[in-house]
Amino acid sequence: MDTATEAPPEIPRGGEMVESPFLTQLVAVIRAEDSHGQWDMKSDVDLLEEFIVTKEERREMPITGDPEPELIWRLTRFYDAVGLMVEKRTGCMATQMQKMHHEGFGRVVLIAGRLVVVSKHLRDVHRFGFETWAKLAEAGDKLVDEAVKLVEQFPEAARA
Predict the structure, then answer these.
(1) 47-94 tens-digit pLDDT
(2) In whole angstroms, what is the distance from residue 150 CA to residue 115 CA?
(3) Structural domain contains residue 46
(4) For 160, which of 24, 114, 136, 142 could close a Cys bridge (C-beta 3.0–4.6 Å)?
(5) What is the rounded distance in angstroms from the CA atom of residue 122 to the CA atom of residue 145?
(6) Does residue 77 lie within any of the structural domains?
(7) Does the reported pTM lie above 0.85?
(8) 72 by DSSP, 3-state: which?
């Protein structure tokens, strides 16, 4: 075989899928929204596909105008998954509140009891997404780990 004429294997969008408890939880959160079973035949990769945004796609996205409702939905599901992972690891329910300006900036907080376990300012939500599956999993895991540390540091406030 002539290797000079063979095309290199195509790297899937988002790179290779990674095993991650966070990604599993995110899929579960998304599937929970499907009360009519329309997504039953979709794979986990298909459901998470919109969370992957390449550098080229990010450059093409406008940063002005109202964020699309689908984007806000994805953002909300991402932080819902973080909250559920915190609850699984600590036993403390962590719920989110977000305030989003129509121009694409705002804030999201996750609260466990009386304790703020995640406080994140958001900018350019029009471009919300991750280059790879690994980066998506890493971002979720990092938020979960930080929130769990806070719950462990202030258990009385988290359980209040």
Answers:
(1) 999 999 988 888 888 777 788 889 899 999 999 999 999 999 999 999
(2) 8
(3) yes
(4) 114
(5) 19
(6) yes
(7) yes
(8) helix
